[in-house]
Amino acid sequence: MPTTLITGGTVVSATGASAADVLVDGETIRAVLEPGSALLGVDLARSVDRVIDAGGKYVIPGGIDAHTHMELPFGGTAASDTFETGTRAAAWGGTTTIIDFAVQTHGQRVEDGLAAWHDKAAGTCAIDYGFHQIVGDVNEASLAALRGLADEGVSSYKLFMAYPGVFYSDDAQILQAMQVAADTGLMTMMHAENGPAIDVLVRQLLAEGKTDPYFHGVARAWQMEEEATHRAIMLAHLTGAPLYVVHVSAKQAVAQLAAARDRGQNVFGETCPQYLYLSLEEQLGASSEEWGSFEGAKWVCSTPLRSKQEHHQDELWQALRTNDLQMVSTDHCPFCMKDQKELGRGDFSKIPNGIGGVEHRMDLLYQGVVDGRISLERWVEITATTSARMFGLYGRKGVIQPGADADIVVYDPAGRTSIGVGKAHHMNMDHSAWEGFEIDGHVDTVMSRGRVIVDGGEYRGRPGDGSFVKRGLSQYLL
Ligand code: URP
Ligand code: ZN
Ligand code: ZN
Questions:
Q1: Residue whose C-alpha is closest to residue 316's, from 369, 380, 373, 261
Q2: Which of 138, 160, 376, 472 is the most exposed place for a label (fewest CB within 10 A)?
Q3: For residues 446 and 410, what is the distance between their CA atoms, to the nearest angstrom?
Q4: pTM for this predicted structure
Q5: Mutate to test the pocket of ligand 1, among 331, 341, 350, 358 (most ligand atoms within 8 A of CB)
Q6: 349-395 pLDDT, tens per residue?
C-alpha cells in the first residue's frame, strides 16, 4: 500500500495540540514528525506516494462511534441503514470505527445472535467495526455464553431496563449478568429507564387520547431515567461489575453517575448529540402539511429528548467538560417517516424509537468547541480516544501515534457544514432530525487504515473496505 505524508496541520490528541506532520505507511502510522522535518535530508516528499496538505487544518484520530444500530429490528420494522449505507455515512462525517450492537432476542442463543450480526456486516462496511452484544434473554445458557464473549473480541454487552416483552431484563437477571461481568471483565452497558412503570404511563396517556409523538417523552419522564440509573449503579456496586450507562439525557441521571464516581465506583456515562442540542419542545411544536402533528415522530427516541424548561443541556455539556460523562456516541438508529415512523400514527407507543446521526457527531461536537463548551482536546477525547480506551481499542484506534491504524481525519475549522438541508446527508433516511442545522467546521479528508476514503467532496471507498475488529477488555477496569 502507498505511503502518505500529511503535512502542515495541527495534530490534536486528548492531551494537546501541536504542529506536526504524519507519515502513513500502508495501513498504519509510521511517524509523527516535527513540521517539515520529513523534507530535510532525505527528500521524503519525493519518496512518498502522496502528500496531503493540511495547512490551517486539524489532524485528528478518526472518530469512534461506540453506539450504533444498523439494521436493528425494532417495532415491527428495522433500522433503515444497512451496514453498507450507515458506515459510508459515518465515513463522510469523520467516523472511522463503529461499534454496533449484535442482538440476542428472546429464545435465541447469544452465539446465534452474534453470528447473525457478523453475517450482516461482513464484506459490506466502509470502515472498521466491532460489536457489543445485546442480551435480550438472560438465562442459564446466555450467562454461560457471556463467559466466552471476550474471546470473540466482544468485550461488552447491553441490558435493557426498558422495553418489557422485547429486550427487558428484570433485576434478578441483571444481577446475574453483572456477576458474570464482574468475573470476566466484560463491560455492562445499561439502557436505564424503568420500563414497567413507563408502560403504565403510556397506557394511561393513550386512554386519555394523548396519542401524539410528544407524549412519548412525557411518559418517559426524567424520574424514570434517574431511578433506573440509580438501581443499575446499586446492582453494579453490589456485584463489583463496571457499568457504562448509555444515552444519558437527564441531568438527574448524570448526578447519580457523578455521585457514584465520587464514591469511587467504576461507572461511566455516555450522552448523544441529540440530548445536547435538541429538546422535547421540538416534538411539541412540530407540524407539517404532510404529517400534521405527527411530524414530531422524527424525534422519538429513548431515552427521550428532554424539556428545555428543565435545563438538562447545560448540565450535560458541563458533565462532558468535567468528566462526569466520559463520551459521546450517536445511538444511530434511523427510521424513515414513510412506512416506518408512521406505524405509530395515532399511537405514539408504536413509533419505532431512534434518531439517525452517525454522520453528524464529529461536526456537532466540534460546534461545542466553537461555542466554548469543550476544548479542542476534549473534543478528540470524547469522540475518539476515550471510546477506544473504554472499549478495548486503544493503541490501534483513537490516537495518532506510530503503530496505530492510520484512521485519520483532516478537519477544516474554517469550513461550514449544512446538516440535513434538502436531505443532503448520506444516511438512508427520508428526513433528518437535524434539518436546518448550519454549523462551523467541516470534514475534509478521511483516511481509514491508510486508504483515503473521503477526499474533499468525493467518496473514494468501497463496500468491504472495513473489517471486524476484535476488541480487548476496557482500559477502565479497576
Ligand atoms: O431510541 C433508541 N435509543 N433506539 C435504539 C435502541 C436503544 O434503546 O438504544
Ligand atoms: Zn438503549
Ligand atoms: Zn441504542
A1: 373
A2: 472
A3: 7
A4: 0.97
A5: 331
A6: 999 999 999 999 999 999 999 999 999 999 999 999 999 999 999 99
